[in-house]
Amino acid sequence: MQERKLPHRYATEDDFARSHPIHAVWEITLACNLKCVHCGSRAGKARESELSTEECLDVVRQLARLRVREVTIIGGEAFLRRDWLDIIRAIRDHGMHPSMQSGGLALNEQRIAAAKEAGLKSCGISIDGSPELHDKLRGVKGSYEHAIRALKLLKKYELVSSVNTQIGAQTLPHLRDLLHLIADAGAKNWQIQLTVAMGNAVDHPEVLMQPHQILELMPHLAELFEEGLELGVLMQPGNNIGYFGPYEHRWRATDVEYGHFQGCAAGHATLGIEADGTIKGCPSLATADYSGGNVRDMTIEDIWLHSDQLRFTRDRTLDDLWGFCRTCYYADVCRSGCTWTNHTLLGRAGNNPYCHHRALTLAKEGKRERIVKVADAPGTPFDRGLFSLFLENMDGTDSVVQVPPPERTNIVRTSEDRVPPTLMLCHGCEQYVQPDTITCPFCGGDVEALMDEHEQQERAIEAAAARVRELLAQTVERQALSLSNDSAG
Question: Is the entire prediction scored with pTM above 0.85?
Fold first, then answer.
């Protein structure tokens, strides 16, 4: 049997079971030519002790030995490092997929042509809204035009392009126009994520969405998802967009093995590398809390296998969850979603207010959640402040702060790494339910009967489509015969 070829970032059940790092995101320099008000790493100047070229090439060799499938280079701005093309070339030569994420400022034709020659396969450009809003958020006038120009050049050089958009409080009204702009520029993928309370964003809390705004955001994204497909753009939600509301089966449509969110993959299927060699389970995680070691002291494999700071999602249990997430219907699958989002916000992982299912559930009870900053961040890369989480009535009255419990200290490493459970889709309400569910807890429907009815409808649609194709073929054949007879006459 021919081995199935998988998309580079696609995590299988086997990858989870063996904790295989399929995707590495590598900050090769912290130098940057933008001044983003929401930058979690506070990029700008290069780190004092960034890895040398030879150290970087050794990192590539180590990633290849770990069977990493894709390596994404980021910054700061990756091309501000002089040997960035050497790094791309080494990634390619070791059989891994080289990709890059860029702000687009000064990513000119010469650089793009050189990157393609070196082996770059795909590139994402960050765009956050209208020209005015984008330039404001990115801190450099004209940065929007540079980003659009870079997108068009990527298309010219036949490099797969995508757009990454941070969704914050000011971004929401601009999303539809942005979708059409990036489609016109040739982007085929649109990755969206919520702006997280880290780094510069802590200093500018006005850019953050309130958790209850998820109720407005998600239906809008559902509309844009369908609109994007018509434009040839696939919307891809980041790991902090979700979870398990009525649109989950659309967001995760490309994940054919699960079809739904499987929980935070940091240190389980992904890893992050900082420019000085610090290893984390995810590039976005707070360095102070999640640094597992440094490549100058240990091999990446040893850090991956033995560091508690990288094993946390493998060893996480329901006892690590708190607040709403602890008793949620999806607790054992979701495990509180994106660790970066909730730990950075609340100072402790395990409770995520940016969840669609959660916001819908609270709204049915006449409740909502709201965040308020209570402590500044210290001003270092990947730092965090502290926010309080309030539960209140929909009109903002009767607010009660939710206080995190102490961190669990009696953590025992599991003998087998966690494999996310696989859920079923109820075709009555389009919500995921636990395996072997008889009656849907959300709509009360008979899950098996609804599935049978759905399959019958799908078969009927396919039969009708096949009949239409047959009739069209017959029509074309008759027209061709008629033309042939006319020519003979």
Answer: yes
